[in-house]
Amino acid sequence: MTRRDLIDLGFSPGEVLGLASFLVRNARERGLEPEEIRPRLQALLENPEDHLEDPCFGSLAKALQAGKKPGGRAGGP
Predict the structure, then answer these.
(1) What's the predicted TM-score (pTM) here?
(2) What is the mean pLDDT of residues 27-37?
(3) Sign of torsion over alpha carbons 14, 36, 30, 51
(4) Which residues, 6 or more positions from 23, have their beta carbon under 8 angstroms from its beta carbon?
(5) Which of 2, 21, 61, 67 is at a distance of 20 to 30 A from 39, taking alpha carbons?
(6) What is the pLDDT of residues 14-25, one digit of tens each?
(7) DSSP 11
(8) Where are the domains of the chain?
(9) Which of 12, 9, 52 is nearest to 34 (CA)?
(10) How far apart (Å, rounded) are the C-alpha atoms in residues 75 and 77?
C-alpha cells in the first residue's frame, strides 16, 4: 500500500501519513494482507476512538484522535 493509496483512503499528507505508511509496512511484515489492511484503515479513519487498542494501528488511531482535538496537529500542516 503506497502513500498515494493512503491519501486516496483519506489520510492527509503530513506526520500522520508517515505514521500510517510505517504501520502498514509493519502490518505486512506481521502477515496482514492488503485486503485486510484497507478496511481496517477505513474503519479507523471513520472512528479512531474505536481502534485505540488495535495491535497494529492503535498508535495511528491515537494520533488521529489527537488531531481532532483543539490544538491537535495530526494530519496535515
Answers:
(1) 0.83
(2) 96
(3) positive
(4) 56, 57, 59, 60
(5) 67
(6) 989 999 999 999
(7) P
(8) 3-68
(9) 9
(10) 7
pLDDT digits (tens, 9 = 90+) for 50-59: 999 999 999 9
CA distance linking residue 33 with residue 14, whole number of Å? 25
In single-letter form, the type of residue at position 19 comes to: L
Q: Which run of H or of E encompasses 20?
A: helix 15-29
Q: Does residue 76 surpass a pLDDT of 70?
A: no
Cα angle 7, 47, 11 (rounded to 5 degrees) comes to 10
* Three cell numbers, residue 58: 492503535
CB neighbour class for 42 (10 Å; exposed up to 12, middle 13-18, buried from 19):
exposed
**Placement of cell 502477515 in the chain:** 31
